[in-house]
């Protein structure tokens, strides 16, 4: 059954792989590491350092070497469509798009999972007996390539060189090259990137509480109550099972071509906020300053939306000061301590959840001392450090964010202080192999100029 009308309903694109992904990925990366080989990479859109941006990485399946130029054209089609749609059109500057060119021996996808057809990721229709469910049977190979070649990826999208209609969600958003492919890709990214449900009835097995699917049916309790009556948002019961509701009758998570409904857009923007920091660079880099010169320039570079909804507020000694990304302070004859503070928050109309916006208010603080009594410890800059999983057995993934992208050294020491692993680099994600080290407690330390931070880590 190939759907040719553009308004056709989506069928069965369940997301089933999301939560266990990182754990599975790192274990498999470990065991099949030796198979890794680098593939050529094309940059489709590059807006800034991968550590600051959301990195959407495309992979190809069912393209023979001679077809890889077509693959790049197919990626461009999806990319152009992606940035025509809200919220991605508004957050364009937040995204890098990269295409890894993986050639296959055979062209196209399998019709059935048991077919003999040698593509790199083994993509097949009729997955779980559902005709349009197009899934990569060897998705571990995609994890391996991503961790090897672009570990900072935030979302992976697999383009399968087959004209038949199909796709799937899960950690690896998958689409064919059917004429509706750019729309299918966006719908699947809705599943994969923001954890959205289908707004058509996909079947009992896929019914779950999601941002756009609920069993809280009253107007007071419904998950999307902040949006009721705005742009046709309501509580619409699924005809097939009236204990579940969707927020809209005409959302991209239900049918091809309309935009994402307000509820789905809010979830997408929340995810964008969770992955980014609107402060991408600032000066001075140190939080405590000696005022030796006649003036000090405070400058912040923001990751802006278009139209720009960032709201910036500066304060000098708690008094609001009208400025956007620069403030010049002249020497204070009174020689008092000065506190400079800047906060930024994205006030986008696309998010109505006040708790969410509150948790994404970012600030910078500087203190100017008129004498030179400041010790060097005052100059340390905070870094955020996460380890996952913790405890870990094969790999531990360390996420490190410093606002300035300065060089750091990441070290793993045991409790006696013995160095067991060391790597140098910048902000970002590090995958540290811990399979060979003895079980026990360790300390992950990150150090660099003005940076010092550590977290405990347990090897199982
Ligand atoms: Zn779907
Ligand atoms: Zn929706």
List the helices and strands and how they pair.
Elements: H1 21-31, E1 41-45, E2 54-61, H2 68-82, E3 95-100, E4 123-124, E5 135-136, H3 139-149, E6 155-160, E7 167-168, E8 172-175, H4 181-194, E9 236-238, E10 241-246, H5 262-275, E11 279-283, E12 288-290, E13 295-302, E14 310-316, E15 319-321, E16 326-330, E17 338-346, H6 354-359, E18 362-369, E19 384-388, E20 395-401, E21 408-414, E22 419-425, E23 428-433, E24 440-448, E25 451-459
Parallel strand pairs: 2-3, 2-6, 6-8, 12-18
Antiparallel strand pairs: 1-3, 4-5, 7-8, 9-10, 11-13, 13-16, 14-15, 14-17, 17-18, 19-20, 20-23, 21-22, 21-24, 24-25
Account of the protein in words:
α1 packs across α3 (139-149) and α2 (68-82) crosses α4 (181-194). A hairpin with a 2-residue loop joins β14 and β15. The protein has three domains: 21-194, Collagenase (Catalytic Domain); 279-379, Immunoglobulin-like (Sandwich), CATH 2.60.40; 384-459, Sandwich (Immunoglobulin-like), CATH 2.60.40. A six-stranded mixed β-sheet has the order 1-3-2-6-8-7, sandwiched between helices. The protein has six helices and 25 strands. The radius of gyration is 25 Å and the shape is globular. Helices cover 15% and strands 31% of the residues. The chain is an alpha+beta fold. It has helices spanning 21-31, 68-82, 139-149, 181-194, 262-275, 354-359, and strands at 41-45, 54-61, 95-100, 123-124, 135-136, 155-160, 167-168, 172-175, 236-238, 241-246, 279-283, 288-290, 295-302, 310-316, 319-321, 326-330, 338-346, 362-369, 384-388, 395-401, 408-414, 419-425, 428-433, 440-448, 451-459. Bound molecules: zinc ion (2 copies). Residues 10, 13, 169, 187, 191, 198 line the site of one zinc ion. One zinc ion binds at residues 199, 212, 247-248, 251, 253, 260-261, 263-264.
